[in-house]
Amino acid sequence: MNIGVNNDVKKSFIVSIPIAFGYIPLGFVCGVLMQQAGLSVFQIALMSFLVFAGSAQFVMSSMMVGGASYISIIMATFIINLRHMLYSSNLSTYIRNNKLFKLLMFSHFITDETFAVNNKNFSLGSWDFNKAFFLGIFSNMFWIFGNVIGGVFGEFISVPIDIASFVLTSMFIMLLVFQIKSRTAVVVCIISFIISCIFNYYFNNGLTIVISTIICSIFGFFIEKKVGE
Amino acid sequence: MDSVYFVIIGMFIVTFVPRFIPLAIFSKIKMNKNLEKIIKYIPIAVFSSILSKDIFFLDNKLAISPNNYKILPAIVVFIVSIKYKSIGLSILVGVISLIILKLVIPL
What we know:
The structure holds two protein chains of two kinds. Chain A is mainly alpha-helical. In chain A, 80% of the residues lie in helices and 0% in strands. Chain A contains eleven helices and no strands. By secondary structure, chain B is mainly alpha-helical. A two-stranded antiparallel ribbon of chain B has the order 1-2. The N and C termini of chain B lie far apart (47 Å). In chain B, strand 1 and strand 2 form a beta hairpin. Chain B contains five helices and two strands; from the N terminus they run αααββαα. Chain B is extended. In chain B, helix 4 packs antiparallel against helix 5. At the A-B interface, helix 1, helix 2, helix 3, helix 4 and helix 5 of A face helix 1, helix 2, helix 3, helix 4 and helix 5 of B.
């Protein structure tokens, strides 16, 4: 049993390294912004652990600086993070048979990146609940680490945010390519790009991702029905 | 700034609930076959949405032009991803292309 767990931890750690390359620089920038918004290092660490959501933390920082009310910050966070509901639904198909308490702990670590990597590995077949869980934990640790050193050293080091965020962009491109395994997938991909560009052009909020994802997933269902694969 | 803790806890709750509820529900109830087929396409749809915003927008404004320094590196990463299927390589190539392009553009 112990050997199995050690093996899982090792495999998860290795898989988490690309995520670390994104989370540490981006977390650093996030930590700097949060520190500038007035949070203490402890508060930065606490939020990075409890919320564990980059875009929400970025938005919180700018809303805080702009003097927004706490309620509006919390509401904005809710909208921005609604997409995790879709990830959770998708992942449930792989990890249904687990105690509710384990699912409770697991769900805390669902993010864009942990979802993307876990989903890919589950569909490849060599993945299981424990490995996915450890991946989430490692990712959170890297995120907290990045944020904390950003909060502490932000005054002395500057990391260009466009490069830091392009690390994650590159990772997503690879993970998107991995998903495209059928003609239906190609069509859904193209339609998603177009629809989300249109939505993002007219609306600038977190709901656009959720709505365009739901619409395009439903599209995928119908296209697959017609095309057969 | 003790009232910040109110924000932290509030953000935690509204973030945790959407992460947990679907998992909790679908571990008790077997998912409808059609729903499962729709959910299968969530990854493609959501990655495309995230990427379209990441790549084609600068400062929340649509930017499909040579001024958008992200488009070319994104295309390069796309090609490298198809050919080599490696996350690490895609990230490396992406960051290097971006840096090169940013250095070259002002010229």
